[in-house]
Each structure stands twice: as structure tokens, then as C-alpha cells.
Amino acid sequence: MTSNVEYSQEMSSLSVCVADSTSTTQLVKEDIPLIPKPQNDICSRCCCWFWRRCCRERELRSRTIVIGQHSPEKFPANVIRNQKYNFITFLPLVLFQQFKFFLNLYFLVMATSQFIPDIRIGYLYTYWGPLSFVLTVTIFREAVDDFRRYQRDKEVNSQRYRRLVRGKDSELVPSSKLRVGDLVVVEKDQRVPADLVLLRTTERSGACFVRTDQLDGETDWKLRLAVPATQKLDSDSQLFDIKAALFVEKPQRDIHSFIGTFTRHDGYGSEDSLDVENTLWANCVVASGVALGVVVYTGSETRSVMNNSQPRSKVGLLDMEINQLTKVLFVAVLGLAIIMMCLKGFSGPWYRYMFRFVLLFSYIIPISSRAQHDKRVSQLRHRGGSESLLLAPFTVADSHFLTSVATPSWSATAVLLGIACRTVRNFIPGTQWFGKPIQVLGYGHIQHGEIGWFDLTPQPMN
């Protein structure tokens, strides 16, 4: 009996110990901050809301489109935008692109140092004047180029297309006003404004040919076929009388594939599968007949826009060469400053005199070279008529040729700026330039590693 009581007391004490240890362990686990507590202040919530609304990429998903009706979902506007800047980002991005170059950064440091009285050697305008002039020229050039891109985008977005309307014949609307679900008529030799599913054509067979050279670079025509169920209708207005819907996949980059279905919900109850032959991608050109399609993707969700890269500032080979030469001249400036310090002696505040010598010899680096280069490039880029070709940089490796080209109506001479080349002496068989037949008149040898520019501006032939 006594042993049983002792056994029960031992078990009860053991259970109490286990309970205490368990409760202690749970208390320790609760104190560990595994998940940070959410902040309840208004500022953090506003920042999170702004990030979700403005900075998050839109989720791409499949969609169902009822023929003759606008989709209740919100889709991107059907606008094309190739600008590199906006009103807010223009000045910061332009300055960032300019001060990436060692030349501009060097003169910025030199001009800023003149605010320190101990190392000032002249008036502020002697350093800030040239730098401000160069930056002003560059900013003005970037503003003009971006404004021209804006004008080209506006011209494309304002192109008018015929849109079918219920109860009416049709109406002309600009390309930027098209929405998902609109029925759009595309005439022959007219650009397709958005990604469409082809419903009807003027051909009895429902066939239509398009040019896709703006998408894939191929010049041959592509065959497109209308949906059989809608091609059999007697007129375009009957599209509003049938009960039909399209189910299309989510937007993607591949221009050679497409998955979708066309379903009629009225008495016919037919269902047709859709592939890439039933589509008209944006920026294609209708080559034969008149096409009628329903808009399925607009704006940034079209195949052409999704395959485009973001606009960025490109650095030419001549710019890189000028930047490298600037670094070499800067090393020469440092060498001259060290020599002058050795002649003077490193006594007293020698570092101040060292920096002053660098400032005095800084004029060895010509800041005007950048402005002159930008001015010349801008002149060559925008000179000439509609037949002007591009200003193309090149780097010569081993032994290449400098060519001159000509057509029966105009000639374009290849000019190598600042570098002498040998006399043109041989003739080469004809070739093509951007799809136009041209004749190469001759070539000249250029030494290894030299850099130049082709000036391919049309000039009248004598």
C-alpha cells in the first residue's frame, strides 16, 4: 500500500515537471519573432499601396471575348510609346547618362572644386560656363530627339480605322481608341492597329495575305484564314446577331503560335479551334483584300510590343574612344602636376598645390570636343530627305573596306571623319541596302583598330 502511494506521488511530480517544461518551451517559442509584426502606421500602408498600384507588373491571363461587346475587364490602352523619357525622368536620366562619361565627370569635379576657397584659382564662370554650355547642348539634343519620337508615336496612334457599331454601319476612330472586343475593318495596304482574330475577308474562301516584315523581317507574304463560322455569314452586320464568344490564351511573345477557340452559343452550337493562321498581329500590313477582325490584345499586350526592348541610351564606338582618350590625357595631366610639385618641393600644404596644378593643366583636355561631336552626329542624322540612310558606326578589325554606294537617283558617299584612307581603286558587284538595289563603287583600305563613321546622306548625282 505504501509503495503504491509513493509510486503515485512520483508520477504526479513527474507530470508536473513535464508540464512545467512544456509550458516553458511554449513560452520561449512564442517569444521568438519568426514573423515580423505588420506595421500599422499610415505612411507604410500608403507606400505599399502605391507600390502595388504603380510599380507592380500587370498579371497576364487568358480571356473570354463576346463578339460585338466590350469586355468588362480593364486592358491596356492601344497606344504605342517609344519615348525614352517622361516629364519627371527626363533631366535625371539625361544627367546620369552624361556623367557616366569620364570627360563630363572630370570637368564636374573641377568646377565643383572652385567652391572651396583654398584651391580656387579663378572665377567660377571659367569652369562652370563651358560645362553648362556642353550640358545644355546635350540636353537640348536629347529633348529634340525625344520630341520627334513623341511626334512619330502620335502620328501612328492617330491613324483612323473603321469600327463596326451595333445599329450603325461603321465609324472612323483613331487607333488609340480601339478596345478589346471591337470589330475593326483593315483595308488593303493598311497597318493592323492591334492583335486581331480574323473573322471575315472579302475573298469567298476567307483567305487573306499579310506582310510581316515589321515583325520577323521576312518579306514573303503570309496566308491568314478567317474563322469558318463567321466567314459563312451573309454580311458583317450579322456578327451582332449571333451569340458567339472567343476564348484566347494569355498574351505572350511568340508570334508563331496561338491557342484559342471560337464558340457559338445559339442554335448552331459549333466550336472551332483557332491557331496562328487565324490571327493578324499588330504592325502587320494587309496585302490583299479587306480584313475584318475582333481585337483580342491591345497596347503593351500585343506581340510586337512584347518583343520590343525598352528604349535605352546607346553609346557609340566613337564616344567610347573619346572617353578612353580623355583618361589618357588625365594621366598626362597628373604626370605634369607631379613634375611641377617635384620642382617646387613637397613642403607645407603640398596637396593644395598639387590640386591647383591639376586645375591649371585641366585645359589640356578639350571639353569642346564632346559638344562638337554631338553637333556633327545630330547634323548627319537629321540631314537629307526621306531617302536618308542611317549614320552607322564601325570598327575596323585586321583589314576591312570603306565603301561608297549609289543608286540611279542619288549617290551616298562614305566619309571617314578625321582619318585618312587610301584612294578608292576597285569595283565590287552590286548589292542591296535596306532592301533597295545599290551599286558599290569602290573601297579603300583602313588600318587595324581605327574607328570612323559612314556618312550615308543622299546627295544628287552630277
TrEMBL record:
Natural source organism: Timema shepardi
SUPFAM superfamilies the record matches: Calcium ATPase, transduction domain A (SSF81653), Calcium ATPase, transmembrane domain M (SSF81665)
Limits of the P-type ATPase A domain: 162-303
Name of the protein in its database record: P-type phospholipid transporter
A cellular component term, taken from the record's GO annotations: trans-Golgi network
UniProt key word Transmembrane helix: yes
P-type ATPase N-terminal domain residues: 71-128
PANTHER family with a match to the protein in the record: PHOSPHOLIPID-TRANSPORTING ATPASE, PROBABLE PHOSPHOLIPID-TRANSPORTING ATPASE
Segments traversing the membrane: 87-109, 121-140, 328-347
One Gene Ontology biological process: retrograde vesicle-mediated transport, Golgi to endoplasmic reticulum
Pfam families associated with the record: E1-E2_ATPase (PF00122), PhoLip_ATPase_N (PF16209)
GO function terms (MF aspect): ATPase-coupled intramembrane lipid transporter activity
Keywords, in A-Z order: Membrane, Transmembrane, Transmembrane helix
